[in-house]
């Protein structure tokens, strides 16, 4: 089986490649942007599965998925994401995706999902698809502390660190520390990206 993994999170991508190749029957290629994935889809011999990260550079969410399906000449394409909502997963499946894989899945389940889709089946974890949409069960919110959520909310409202510090009655350096942790947990490079990820996940 040939699998193309396109994800800008190096650690997850490398881990997934390692697990898949350890299966023995898997041949994997990995890239970090949608442009690189598109090039592989068009120039390589067909893959059994193309796994695209919903938030990687150039992906543009579901538009990237639809483009990959269109250019793939019948190759199966699936989404992987740490932030996308149930609604995004449903829309992806409706658009013709072979499946939706949350990054929160244990490694073994993730590998099994990839094998399942590569064999032609459609995959989406039942617990994710049937989860109630509120902050308490939001997988992204579960990663963050209450204070981090408060800081993130201020950030999504376009407030400066000074304004967030004033609203929460904490020091500005403390806000900066929370920002650093937030960027790491969200996989964001800057304030704008962090705010987009939070909105996309339906947090605020």
List its salient traits.
204 residues; alpha/beta; Rossmann fold; Arc Repressor Mutant, subunit A; 2 domains; five-stranded parallel beta sheet; 5 strands; 12% strand; elongated
Report on this structure.
By secondary structure, this protein is an alpha/beta fold. It folds into 2 domains: 2-129, Rossmann fold, CATH 3.40.50.2300; 136-200, Winged helix-like DNA-binding domain superfamily/Winged helix DNA-binding domain (Arc Repressor Mutant, subunit A, Orthogonal Bundle), CATH 1.10.10. It contains 10 helices and 5 strands; from the N terminus they run βαβαβαβαβαααααα. It has helices at residues 10-22, 34-43, 62-71, 86-94, 107-118, 126-129, 146-156, 161-168, 172-186, 191-200; strands at 2-6, 27-31, 49-53, 77-81, 99-102. It has a 5-stranded parallel beta sheet, sandwiched between helices. Strand 4, helix 4 (86-94) and strand 5 form a beta-alpha-beta unit. Helix 8 packs across helix 9. It is elongated and about 55 Å long. The model has no long low-confidence stretch (mean pLDDT 89).
């Amino acid at each position: 089986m040939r699998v193309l993994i396109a994800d800008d999170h190096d650690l997850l991508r490398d881990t997934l490649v390692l697990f898949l190749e350890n299966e023995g029957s898997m041949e994997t290629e990995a890239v970090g942007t949608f442009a690189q994935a598109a090039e592989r889809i068009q120039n390589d011999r067909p893959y059994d599965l193309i796994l695209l990260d919903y938030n990687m550079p150039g992906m543009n969410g579901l538009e990237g998925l639809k483009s990959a399906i269109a250019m793939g000449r019948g190759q199966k394409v699936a989404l992987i994401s740490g932030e996308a909502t149930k609604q995004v997963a449903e829309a992806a499946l409706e658009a013709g995706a072979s499946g939706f894989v949350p990054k929160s899945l244990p490694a073994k389940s993730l590998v099994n999902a990839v094998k399942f889709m590569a064999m032609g089946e459609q995959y989406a974890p039942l617990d994710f698809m049937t989860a109630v949409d509120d902050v308490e069960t939001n997988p992204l919110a579960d990663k963050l502390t209450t204070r981090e959520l408060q800081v993130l909310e201020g950030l999504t409202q376009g407030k400066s660190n000074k304004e967030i510090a004033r609203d929460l009655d904490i020091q500005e350096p403390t806000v900066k520390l929370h920002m650093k942790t937030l960027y790491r947990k969200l996989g964001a490079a800057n304030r704008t990206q962090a705010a987009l990820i939070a909105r996309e996940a339906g947090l605020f």
